[in-house]
Specification:
This protein is mainly α. Helix content is about 80%, strand content about 0%.
């Protein structure tokens, strides 16, 4: 779990381009792609199981999310190589504005889809965490976690507006840029709760889909 958490931290850090400047931005991005390769290798069995088992609504959503993430990550990686001015400064492939814009747009989409990806697997994350920490089931703890999830969802919605994420995801242009001369920490806090809020939303969406599948299966079994 530390591996995807580190990847998310590097991604959020790389989004602070106007604070980091180009050199650290590319270093963080390179480290993120390195960890991504490790993550894919560690979870390679998931790809081998794609043809086995039954596909319900939840599994289709997970599959589409992975494909979507794979496409945006590929675009981000390719554009990273093409516009690199530090890590691959010897190459200098292009400075085309369109390529730079595609790089930024794909980065914002990656941030959101990574959060969706985390939400679709959140039940497993919580199970592993409980086993590692040797936590027994507790209604009080479950209630506190649900309240925390609702809080993150609310804060994430607010930060989504503050950062103008919807404009960035729609390949639009915004005249509002974060002023790092006045504050730095809130930028990272806003992006963190945005990703956390999206993860919470996708997690509960998966729960709803699971219930829908149970009802559908129950109806089918009742008819037979």
């Amino acid at each position: 779990m530390l591996l995807p958490a580190a990847m998310a931290a590097l991604l959020i850090s790389a989004l602070a381009y106007w604070w980091l400047d180009n050199g650290p931005h590319e270093i963080f991005g390179t480290l993120m792609f390195g960890l991504l390769g490790w993550h894919l290798t560690t979870n390679r069995r998931w790809f081998l199981k794609l043809r086995s088992g039954r596909y319900d609504a939840r599994r289709w959503v997970v599959l589409v999310t992975h494909i979507w993430l794979g496409i945006t990550m590929t675009v981000l990686a390719i554009t990273s190589v093409l516009i690199s001015r530090s890590v691959l400064s010897f190459a200098q492939f292009t400075n085309n504005v369109r390529v730079v814009e595609l790089h930024w747009f794909s980065a914002y989409w990656v941030a959101i889809i990574v959060a969706v990806h985390a939400g679709t697997h959140w039940t497993r994350v919580m199970t592993v965490t409980g086993n590692v920490l040797r936590l027994s089931p507790s209604p009080i703890r479950a209630g506190i976690l649900r309240l925390a999830a609702l809080l993150l969802l609310g804060l994430g919605t607010w930060s989504f507006t503050v950062l103008g994420v919807s404009t960035k995801l729609m390949f639009g242009y915004s005249l509002e840029f974060w002023d790092f001369t006045s504050a730095v920490s809130p930028f990272f806090a806003h992006w963190t709760v945005v990703m956390a809020g999206v993860a919470v939303f996708s997690h509960y969406a998966m729960i709803c889909l699971r219930q829908v599948d149970k009802v559908r299966i129950h109806k089918i079994e009742g008819q037979t």
